[in-house]
Amino acid sequence: MMKEIVLSICTILLIVSCGDDNKIEEDVDQDQRDSIESTIIDIVMATKDLDSLDMIPSLRFSSGENITYTVKQYMYQGEVKMITVEDYANDYVRGSEFYYDNGQPVFVSDYISEFDDSSEVYTEHIIFLNNNEVYQSYVKNEFNDEPIFEDTLFEKSTIDISTLDFEKPLRALHQEGEFEMYFDEFLLIEPQSYLIVENADSSINAAIFIKYGDELLDKMFEDPKAFEKKKIWVNHYFEEMNGIERMIYNGAKLRED
């Protein structure tokens, strides 16, 4: 998936440079375009090899109406290069990729598929940014698997940058804001056990599979009431077990802030 995203951005840049009445075309100042394209190409080159990236996942958060929200941050030489978001429920699936340079977003790819028993509405945006402003954006309302450089469905569009939420994924990664977690309980489903954490108003939670315990878990298990609503930072990793990707407990610490 990552390599497909990188290829897509490379081909977008080719299209923007060449122009085509039936495809994505450019309408910005040549010097500005060259500068922005050069920046994005540098990012693409830095992220073209999965082995060169350090990936940091957020917790897999759950909330009402069977909503699941999870984020992955990709780093290259200590700098954030891309953040991906998966957000889905019973009636929609959404995926977003945010590309960064020097801490600033420069390219966004976002799709959402909303559906019920009889219909589906699909919307996909690709957005180029410069100095935290949108300078080109395109949209299509039909899914196809054509490479972007051959995709004639994209049309030029306008989009308000305020509709692009760059901060929510960061809050999820850092377990801050609505994603700040508190100890709730242990869920025991023999032989499995889970640490359950939730936010302040119990609207968002996460269930972390306990593969190995530690001193903090032992203390919380012995006297859970003493830890009720205590702020907690949870470390974790994902591992496939018996064909299921589980979110595995990897230590935690109580937060005093």
What's the topology here?
Elements: H1 2-18, H2 30-47, E1 54-57, E2 61-63, E3 67-76, E4 79-88, E5 92-101, E6 104-115, E7 120-130, E8 133-140, E9 155-156, H3 167-174, E10 182-189, E11 192-198, E12 204-209, H4 215-222, E13 232-241, E14 244-254
Antiparallel strand pairs: 1-3, 2-3, 2-12, 3-4, 4-5, 5-6, 6-7, 7-8, 8-9, 10-11, 11-12, 13-14
In short, what is this structure?
By secondary structure, this protein is α+β, with helices and mostly antiparallel strands.
Helix and strand pattern: HHEEEEEEEEEHEEEHEE
Q: What's the number of extended β-strand segments?
A: 14
State the secondary-structure class. Answer: alpha+beta
If you average the pLDDT, what whole number results? Answer: 84
Strand content: 35-45%
Unreliable runs: 1-12, 14-28
Give the domain tally. 2
Biggest sheet descriptor? 12 strands, antiparallel
- Per DSSP, the total helix count is 4
N-C termini distance? 38 Å
Radius of gyration: 21 Å
| Overall geometric form | globular
Fold and architecture overview:
- Helices cover 20% and strands 44% of the residues.
- With 257 residues, the protein is an alpha+beta fold.
- The chain is globular and about 65 Å long.
Please describe the structure with a list of short key phrases separated by commas or semicolons.
257 residues; alpha+beta; 12-stranded antiparallel β-sheet; two-stranded antiparallel sheet; disordered N terminus
